[in-house]
Design brief:
Layout: E1 20-24, H1 25-42, E2 45-48, H2 56-61, E3 70-72, H3 75-83, E4 88-94, H4 100-108, E5 112-117, H5 120-133, E6 139-143, H6 158-168, E7 172-177, H7 188-211, E8 218-221, H8 224-229, E9 238-241, H9 249-254, E10 264-274, E11 279-282, H10 286-289, E12 305-309, E13 314-323, E14 328-332, E15 346-350, H11 354-358, E16 363-367, E17 382-385
Helix pairs in contact: 5-6
């Protein structure tokens, strides 16, 4: 007599030890399609920034499994994506000359890896390494469009000097800028202005280089707020963004997305109560959520994150208001009544900054909110690994 073994029980969000990161693939796909359609309408190439998810599996959602242009923030990402078959990569952090051997190794594998720089010293290091290796190292000049970080202002005297150093070694690829101050543009009007300034700065720098007889193949712009606000990208060749694949509370606070678009959350468990203080304690502290308090500068401070039940429904007025290394503190906002959440209750926390929260985890438990009855505990349909290191 033979017997049929019982079917394996489906893993749900009630099973893994907490805390752990969750990605809702349905929401990510919706976010991905939204920006892809916009880039098509604007007539530019979309070069997603993989620094947020740092995942080959999530990148594959963007292109159906075929290779596509990507942006990375570390050489470890570039190497992992090259191993995954990606051959068109921009490493969008100012190049450290000590890392050039790794850049050259990727170029020799047939990967077009662009580096970023904003000084004569970096340009000299890149061109010397290129000549010694006997190959071109594509380099983009970083343009500062809003005083946020590195780069040259479009009318900087040294712009054409740097361009000429690169061109003489066959290394000048183009210009790149990032509107970092757009994360503080709190209205659609301000975000459109930021997008226009980002475009105009990059195009002006490219125009100066061309006027000096230097070729500019790439004019690259992008941040998640400006990518979703831009209405005219004339003169731009490519658009970059990364946060949009997950979105987060900062983006929701800016109005770039809705709370229901947030695809990343962290599952935590209630481990205690301090009723005398109005606290609910969880096992998810800043090691699970990060120290990022990006919404503190917005009109609605979301603490360390907003609280959902395990099915993904918001719990009104409950916020993660404090964090120590492995403890999270939940409190009711604005005098609201603290809900009854017994020890052992699982919750999901929406993060302020998806990039920072994702970086606290080795991988993602994947769910699909379009494939379950409302109110049920989501099933885990996959587990995806993250790339780490530099």
């Amino acid at each position: 007599m033979t017997t049929t073994p019982p079917p394996a029980r489906t893993t749900t969000l009630a099973d893994p030890d907490t805390p752990f990161a969750v990605v809702d693939v349905h929401k990510s796909l919706r976010n991905i399609e939204r920006l892809a359609s916009r880039a098509d309408r604007l007539g530019v190439t979309l070069r997603p920034h993989v620094k947020t998810a740092k995942s080959l599996d999530i990148a594959a959602l963007m292109h159906g499994g075929a290779s596509m242009p990507v942006t990375t923030s570390t050489l470890a990402e570039a190497e992992a994506f090259a191993d995954g078959g990606y051959t068109d990569i921009t490493y969008a952090v100012g190049i450290d000359p000590h890392k050039l051997p790794r850049v050259i190794a990727l170029l020799r594998r047939g990967v077009t890896l662009r580096v970023l720089l904003d000084s004569r010293e970096q340009a000299a290091s890149v061109t010397a390494a290129a000549r010694e290796a006997g190959l071109a190292i594509p380099a983009q000049i970083e343009i500062d469009c809003d005083g946020h970080r590195g780069g040259l202002v479009p009318d900087a005297p040294e712009l054409t000097d740097i361009g000429r150093i690169l061109h003489e070694a066959g290394c000048l690829d183009g210009v790149l800028t990032h509107a970092g101050e757009s994360y503080f543009a709190h209205t659609p009007h301000d975000q459109r202005l930021a997008a226009e300034n980002e475009r105009d700065s990059a195009v002006a720098a490219a125009r100066r280089l061309r006027a000096a007889g230097l070729p500019v193949g790439t004019v690259s712009v992008g941040s998640t707020p400006t990518a979703h606000a831009a209405e005219d990208l004339t003169g731009v060749t490519e658009l970059r963004a990364g946060n949009y694949v997950f979105f987060d509370l900062v983006m929701a606070g800016l109005g770039v997305c809705r709370l229901e678009d947030l695809a990343l959350s962290v599952v935590v468990t209630v481990i205690g109560h301090r009723p005398e203080y109005g606290w609910i304690l969880t096992d998810g502290g800043w090691m699970a959520m990060s120290r990022d308090r990006g919404t503190a500068a917005q009109s609605r401070d979301q603490g360390y994150g907003l609280v959902l039940d395990l099915a993904g429904n918001p719990i009104p007025d409950l916020v993660m208001s404090a964090a120590s290394q492995e403890h999270g503190t939940l409190t009711a906002r604005d005098g609201a009544t603290l809900p009854e959440l017994p020890v052992g209750t699982r919750l999901r926390i929406l993060p302020n900054h998806a990039c920072a929260t994702a970086a606290q985890h080795r991988g993602y438990y994947v769910i699909d909110s379009s494939q379950r009855p409302a109110g049920s505990t989501p099933a885990v349909i996959a587990k995806w690994q993250r790339i780490s290191g530099w």
